[in-house]
Amino acid sequence: MTTGVKTRIVSDPGILSGMPVVEGTRVPAESVLIEIRRRLPRAEIFNTYPSLPLDGIEACLAWERAGKPL
Question: How much is the pTM?
C-alpha cells in the first residue's frame, strides 16, 4: 500500500545527535507531532518550520502510525 508520502523520517548521528528528523531538514519529527497534537493549523506549523516539505506533516503522522521505527 502506498501512502503518497515521499518524505521520510530519518536518523543520522551527525544531525541533532541522531534525533529522528524530517528527511532533508533539521526539523525533529517529534516536534511536528507535538504541534499537531496541540491542534495548530498546518499553515502555522509550516510557518514555524519553513524548511518542512509539503508532505512533511504526513510523513510524521505515517512514522507515528508505524510505531516510530528507524
Answer: 0.90
